[in-house]
Amino acid sequence: MRIVGPATACAVVAALAVGCGPAVSGTPKPAPNLKPRPLTGQTVRQVLLDDGALSRMLDQPFVGRMPPAFGGPDKLYSQLPPGGGCLGVTAMLQKSVYESADVQDVASESWWNNGDPAQVISVIEGVVTLPTAAQAEALFAKFSKQWQQCNATTTTEQDGPITTTNAISDIRVADTVVAATNTATSVLPNMPPLRPTPQARAIGVRLNCLVEVQVVFFGDRRSSDPGSANPDTSAIDIAHAMMDKVSEAS
Fold first, then answer.
1. 241-250 burial by CB neighbour count: b if 16+ within 10 A, else e?
2. pLDDT tens-digit map of 42-58
3. Which of 42, 44, 142, 179 could form a disulfide with 202 if both were Cys (CB 3.0 to 4.6 A apart)?
């Protein structure tokens, strides 16, 4: 028979005591003094809101027409030529807008009206990560300054045969979000201008992430059409919801 030493015996008794103790229910929580971790890799995709969340927020259904995009800086958009400091206000996730930043991850997704009368045509949401929270905050400060300089200005963009005039207004910064309203009027060759469409824009910062939102409204919408979206608040509300998801995933 093998003799068990006092130290080993104590360890066995302790292990049995722990193993036979009462189970503790609930979800484990990190210690309160742990610092939030920067988001990286596939975790970044968790920040995007799905169609159900957007439908509850804006009180109208949405459908996806293409898969979400995820990857590195190559997933930034480059369909528009550089347009100065105001391109960041009028267009989402432009490569030329982020060219000075050390972009790590990019995730984006578009949701569209399902064809029924409604307030909103589409919602585009995006997340851009930088290596550190300090870098993200510095870039947000830069964007905020640029956006404020664009208040009450008009820009023109050329996308193939389509010319779009953007009237930028109502720039405001609050609670780590900068927001704007852009009224876009597009013209196709040999045709009268299309009806102006209000577009609510917002960029927010949380940890090492910048979140971008664009909500495009129908130009001919009626107050009786389904939906509760508001050009003044909806992009900001969506940005805050995404920022909360950054905190949850960190």
1. bbbebbeebb
2. 999 999 999 999 999 99
3. 179
